[in-house]
Design a protein that fits this description.
Blueprint (H helix, E strand, L loop, with lengths): L11 H38 L6 H9 L6 H7 L6 H15 L6 H25 L2 H19 L3 H22 L1
GO cellular component, one term: chloroplast stroma
């Protein structure tokens, strides 16, 4: 007998559980997005708080103390300082360490660090000169803009589109 309300419906518990899970997932997603924003803000603040050094020795230490994920940004920012004089100084310091009379573990460690730094800086400056860093950055930015639009994150998408415009303007100035 169906009565006034129609046939009995099933799946109430499944629907309630589905709603709960959806709410928990939304909370977790919001918490994750907050963490990502906080991390980006922390990195931006750290980047802005670091003053560019004056000498080649200080610049070497500056790069050695730079987080790996920030190195491309710093190479782009300090590209004018990464000139022949800087690389000559880096090469000189490497030579001093390679031919040190008594090699300690500290000297060996420093040599390995400087060799890795030299390679990263040379590759990074070549990429900047060929505009590859800017292109890969634009590709990443385009992906993030598309994801922001998919996720209905209008403010984030608008901000990244403004940033993309600034990068394009910068690339145009550099290439002309």
């Amino acid at each position: 007998m169906e009565g006034v309300l129609g046939p009995p419906q099933t799946g109430h518990l499944a629907r309630i559980e589905f709603k709960r899970r959806l709410e928990r997932d939304a909370d977790a997603r919001e918490a994750f997005e907050r963490q990502v924003i906080e991390e980006k803000e922390r990195r931006r603040a750290l980047r802005e708080s670091r003053a560019a050094p004056d000498t080649a020795e200080e610049l070497i230490e500056y790069f050695l103390n730079t987080e790996a994920r920030e190195i491309e940004f710093e190479i782009s920012r300090l590209r004018p300082r990464l000139d022949k004089e800087f690389f000559s100084h880096l090469q000189y310091e490497l030579g001093q360490l390679r031919f040190a009379v008594s090699k300690t573990q500290d000297i060996e460690d420093r040599l390995i660090e400087l060799e890795a730094l030299q390679k990263a800086l040379q590759e990074g400056t070549e990429m900047v000169e060929r505009n590859e860093l800017n292109r890969s950055f634009l590709t990443l930015l385009d992906e993030n803009i598309a994801n922001a639009h998919k996720g209905n994150q209008k403010q984030a998408a608008d901000f990244m589109e403004k940033l993309r415009g600034a990068v394009l303007k910068y690339m145009t100035l550099i290439n002309s």
